[in-house]
Design goal:
This is Transmembrane protein 63C. Pfam families: PHM7_cyt (PF14703), RSN1_7TM (PF02714). One of its GO terms (cellular component) is plasma membrane. It is a single chain. This protein is mainly alpha-helical and 621 residues long. 57% of the residues lie in helices and 5% in strands. Among the domains are: 101 residues, no CATH class; 276 residues, no CATH class. The protein is built from 24 helices and six strands. The longest helix has 27 residues. The chain is flat. The protein starts with 17 loop residues before the first helix and ends with a helix.
């Protein structure tokens, strides 16, 4: 079939360099779409503040003396709220359970439950677990957790971190401070004040503050050398693991040793035998990147945008090696790749036929891969089987009906832009890389992009909760696409050297184009690193007082600037336990609620119970 052969065999001599020119133009023009219209904010995030500093006036005095034209309007310290957030979640669940069984006990009387896991799916009495009063159990649990929460809340001022959010009167003031604090790179110290020996302001790290709903407050406690040691250790362990188990070819070859696929091959069906390897490649290429994906959660990033961006880069790098580079070179792991790259005697003992790298069969394999990712991959994203599995597991581990209701209400999670960007850019790189040596892959690549766009659009609107990350993540995804034309030119250069020789005009022109693209990309990266820092475009100063409000804390007024850059658990009104058999006071009523939050929770749970009772009565004869 002619369309599977390289374009040099089907194009005239004058047009043989057309793909290189188009790839070069695409890579260069993509840069101009990355410069976004960034707005300016009035809040700075200051790190490495001594933890014994508890007076915000010292920080205000420092900025007033060091920068007389700048006026500080608010200073908020950060605290270690990891245990506090955990206790708050547990006590809310206990409160919901007590409210639910309090409503049921008014109609059905005393209700007995088992408190061990899997009590809902294993109700038998053979295990020896005793039944307890449901309302009493959750009331005692709520009282205990509330006492622990109150004690932890009182200890929060003692758990001050070396991070603070400083808000200024005008956005131009933050630009002046950011510019001055970036001078230590050029061996220039920032402005000093009379309290510099106390605050150690010359050691501060100053940056634009992210959006409050983008900050992962429980991760702010992990900083400094502890964070870097954690990051290096996790990535080193991940690299060692994936060094020997890089591609699905290792898993597939292990399966072949045990003749796992032999019954399928004995069917002699060309459709099954041709698509089975690509289906296995797609299945294992889905499973292996999850190791890279979940490692980002253990690294304790401070913002969701940075977490998604690092996940995107790590998964993309892993997928490029696993899906494109190693299978194209006939290698199975990074171990073999590095031996081929650095060991000069490796080719003498190994049997690697690089002349077969760009045969039509190799291109057909990647065409099948793109077709599989387009049809089966997008369909599996609509089914969301991993999320359904986690949801079913949580339902099975729920001990009572309120916990099952809590699982049902909290089953939705945010759309993982980092992982999805990595998958999309990987398939786009596959299409771009083989678009010259195997042009038939381009229509199927377009099919994948269309189906992927419609699938992600549906999932974002209807399956995931709203999330708003920094635009720098999307700009980084666009910059990551620059690797696709570079891989395309490199693959064409590799093919030209093997098939046409190293002195052919097409080879020389391809080599020059590759060098220009690499130099231009490196120059753009260095230029971007040297540019002054700019804030995210969604932190606009025109909105109210110039600070975006945390959408999760709806109970806080938009005029309260002093509580914007504070963890949500420290902003909300304190919940008080309702009157219960375990905690009764003089004159207390059993149906009284001590806070608006509890009232709404009680109404929701009672409505849920009433609806379930009415539906069961209607179904009964």
């Amino acid at each position: 079939m002619v369309y599977l052969y390289p374009c040099e065999t089907s194009l005239p001599g004058n047009a043989s360099s057309l793909p290189c020119v188009m790839s070069f133009i695409y890579g260069n023009h993509l840069i101009y779409f990355l410069y976004l219209n960034f707005q300016v904010v009035r809040t700075l995030m200051v790190t490495h503040i001594p933890q014994e500093i508890s007076d915000p006036s010292l920080i205000t005095k420092h900025f007033h003396e060091a920068y007389p034209s700048c006026t500080v309007t608010d200073v908020q310290f950060s605290y270690d709220v990891r245990r506090l957030m955990k206790l708050d979640t547990e006590r809310r669940q206990a409160m919901k359970g007590r409210l639910y069984f309090a409503g049921r006990s008014q109609k059905e009387g005393r209700i007995m439950i088992k408190t061990h896991p899997c009590a809902r799916i294993c109700p038998c009495d053979c295990c020896g677990f005793q039944k307890v009063d449901a309302e009493q159990y959750y009331a005692e649990m709520e009282e205990k957790l509330t006492d622990e929460f109150t004690a932890e809340r009182n200890r929060i001022p003692l758990k001050r971190l070396g991070t603070a959010f400083v808000t200024f009167q005008d956005e131009r003031m933050t630009a002046v401070i950011i510019q001055d604090c970036s001078r230590p790179r050029c061996r220039r110290a920032p402005q000093q004040s009379s309290v510099t020996p106390i605050l150690h302001s010359h050691q501060w790290g100053v940056r634009y503050a992210p959006a409050p709903n983008d900050v992962i407050w429980e991760n702010l406690a992990v900083s400094g050398p502890v964070w870097w040691v954690r990051l290096v250790a996790l990535n080193l362990a991940l690299f060692i693991l994936l060094f020997f188990l890089t591609t699905p070819a290792v898993v597939v070859s292990t399966m072949d040793r045990f003749n796992v696929t032999h019954p399928v091959e004995s069917l002699q069906n060309p459709v099954i035998t041709q698509f089975l390897p690509t289906l296995l490649l797609w299945m294992f290429s889905v499973c292996l990147p999850f190791l890279v994906y979940y490692s980002a959660f253990l690294e304790c990033h401070w913002t969701r945008s940075n977490e998604n961006q690092l996940t995107m880069h790590k998964c993309y790098l892993f997928l490029v090696f696993m899906v494109i580079i190693l299978p194209s070179l006939g290698l199975t792991s990074l171990d073999l790749f590095f031996r081929w790259l650095f060991d000069i005697h490796f080719l003498d003992s190994a049997n690697l036929k690089f002349q077969c790298v760009f045969l039509p069969n190799n291109g057909a394999f990647f065409v099948n891969y793109v077709i599989t990712a387009s049809l089966i991959g997008t369909a599996m994203e609509l089914l969301r089987i991993p999320g359904l599995t986690v949801y079913a597991t949580r339902l099975c581990l729920a001990k009572s009906v309120p916990e099952r209701l809590h699982v049902k209400r909290s089953q939705a999670y945010e759309f993982q832009f980092g992982l999805e960007y990595a998958w999309t850019t990987c398939v786009f790189s596959v299409v771009m890389t083989y678009s010259i040596t195997c042009p038939i892959i381009a229509p199927f690549g377009l099919l994948y992009l269309l189906l992927k766009h419609m699938t992600d659009r549906y999932n974002i609107y209807y399956a995931y909760i709203p999330t708003k990350l920094s635009p720098s993540l999307h700009a980084a995804a666009a910059r990551q696409l620059l690797a696709a034309p570079i891989l395309c030119i490199f693959w064409l250069l590799f093919f030209s050297v093997l098939r046409l020789g190293s002195t052919h005009p097409v080879t020389l022109f391809t080599f020059a184009s590759l060098l220009c693209c690499l130099l231009f990309s490196i120059f753009g990266l260095c230029l971007r690193k040297l540019r002054p820092k700019r804030p995210s475009s969604y932190q606009m100063s025109e909105q109210g007082e110039g600070i975006i409000q945390d959408t999760e804390s709806s109970s806080i007024s938009s005029t309260q600037q002093s509580t914007v850059f504070v963890a949500t658990v420290l902003q909300e009104h304190e919940l008080s336990p309702l009157a219960s058999p375990a905690h009764l006071s003089y004159g207390a009523l059993e149906t009284r609620a001590d806070s608006p939050t509890e009232t709404s929770e009680a109404e929701n749970l009672q409505d849920t119970y009433v609806k379930g009772t009415c539906s069961s009565e209607e179904r009964s004869p």
